[in-house]
Write a structure and sequence with these properties.
This protein has ten helices and 18 strands. It has 366 residues and is α/β, with parallel strands linked by helices.
Length: 366
Amino acid sequence: METASLWTTIVTDKSQLTRIALRQAKNSLFDVYHLNLSSHPDAEDALLLALQPDFFPRIRRLDLVVRLETRSCLEDMLDCRDAPALETIFLAVADSSFYDFPYTFLNGGTPCLKQVEFRNCVPHWASPLFCSSIVDLTLTSLRCPCTDYELDAFVAALNRLERMETLLIQLQDPCRFTDPSSLTQHNHSVVALPKKLESFKLKGTVTHCARLLSRLEHVATIRSVDIDIEYKPDLEDWIKVSPKLNREICRQYQPVCFDFIHIYGLDGCGFSFEAIEEDVRQFRCRILCPVRAVQFRRILSCSASLIRHLPVAYPCTLALDFLSPIPTPWFTAAFSNLSFAIDEIYLTGERLVEQFSEIFSKPLKR
């Protein structure tokens, strides 16, 4: 029990055990895990012990799941703090509120920081915390920047992360937090994501996904791109906003020609397709909606428009897998202008064979 390495994982739920672990860890680097959903006073005291200036420089990993009332504690303990050994930070607010970072949050320096995940948090995008050492960045339940000025600051922060390889952004519903009158109109800049980025995943409504993509360029150079669209009929007009997403995707991928496309029907509650260019890059798009929230035909109308504008190489391989009956007009709208490029086709049912035979005016085999 005297071996320091046995005490380098500290769960701050009891102050007495935390005090013992900090003493036994001696000069070793250690990881701190704090999960306190009930705001138990002893757990708060244990966290304060671990974040004391004598110990903080040796924290290697910091996992904090807190309630919003802990904010003052965090700000006092992490304000202007230098974290020379910190490699990973996970910070989540457990309730429905958001934690707005001050500029001084950990701005003393985090030279070793590699992995960052924030949930229900709104970082100060100009903070030095967004240094060039971050490799993996995950922003879940992120309150989407409301104004153009805030969005400019957000994409500028992403651009500064020169070593970033993976990026996941999950945006919150737009109308819950956005006041339309606060949206300003000005000539905004377009920013390229870091060149080392290998994986980019974006989740949110059509409105905010299209809005963020409009501020980015060279997305098509990223090896793997995933876009998950959440259909929210109570928040936005799908017919009006979906063309904006189509336009931004086509703008990003205009120089790229896909030679393999796989299209899935998600049993009446969504639609998904995956496009691959010679195993060099992949683009996946999913449109998801609650069951019975909207007619599946409305989802198909948007997806047909998106497929129709995809840059397709010749020859192209097409695979289709649908669990629900698909109306023939959708197939015609989606594929009639691509029939010249399709060299191989893989279908999952007799009905699909009949529909494609009609489009291509020639018999096909399943």
